[in-house]
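Figure 2 data, in text form.
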Amino acid sequence: MSRVTASDLPDVPKGQLPQHLELQRTRVLCGSDAPTHTETIQYSGAYASIGVDNSLRLEQFCKKFRVEVIRLTEDDMEFDMIGIDPSIANAFRRILIAELPTMAIEKVLIANNTSVIQDEVLAHRLGLVPIKVDPRLFEFMSENDTPNEKNTIVFKLHVQCKRGGPRITVKTDELKWLPNGGEFPIATLNHTSNPSSRPKTNTFFTHSQDSLPEFSNNPIASVHQDIIIAKLGPGQEIELEAHAVKGIGKTHAKWSSVSTAWYRMLPDVVLLQEVEDEKAEELVKKCPVNVFDIEDIGNGKKRAIVAKPRACTLCRECIRGEGWEKRVALRRVKDHFIFTIESTGALPPDVLFTEAVKILEEKCERVITELS
């Protein structure tokens, strides 16, 4: 008997994968005993025996890849990235979290703190306050740089609770922007300086920041004015200066440009057989997020349909119980990612998206340069 290749067999069309292999290549199964891995099979030799080239090619990627914006508000954004590998999706997520720069309080000069909060705890709380300012207007400050109007933002906080009065809550609306730089003078032993000249401070600006058109009508402040910093009792006082500089989340989480950035693969809910009448009503009641609905098919009969597959959370309630795994299949599409970006408020989420794309592009260009 002469030998034949697998592609010459009658049940394997040449240039196409069998149904079970195509399902394995494009979907992640979510049954009770299904694997949880998300790896993709993209090397060219995987299906060479049946005449299918599964390698990743640039022209194929350009045809398949697209971005669809689902929701965009001032604070968050939901969009779909279709036709990419999980490694690229995760790289994009990590760039959003760790590599987009923002401004955050790094140095706190405390002149007086008689509250119950220790100095280091107070400084830590101030560092986590999101600042509403475009970080692209400022420069990174290295160890050898001196603070100036191009790399530093200065705030002051001076709150006192009078004796005999009620306790007060110190919120971020008490942080006052100092566009001319710091006001705390540097202690010096030189007493011959001109008393009429401006005293030397820790952060001296040659030009006022509010003279720039970006800040003239939009003063720098915290994103939210009602974040609690501390609570003061009668006779307690806080007086300090806070210096904000530019940084990235990879250095410290306070510089992260997003409160969260996450993705999930698109759910693929499939009815393997007709689910009718009482079983259809049971299936609709089983799903807590209303993925299924009832369709009237005439003659007093009705059947279940998949109405909102995107809402599926893969909780598997629909396949619990005897026989339901034979009626419903839960899968995830391997190259379709639903992204959600929640901004901290410094930049809108659509701007964060474009800036992350630029960083990813720079990384790809650097890799291509190194390989060439």
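Caption note: The chain is about 20% helix and 30% strand.
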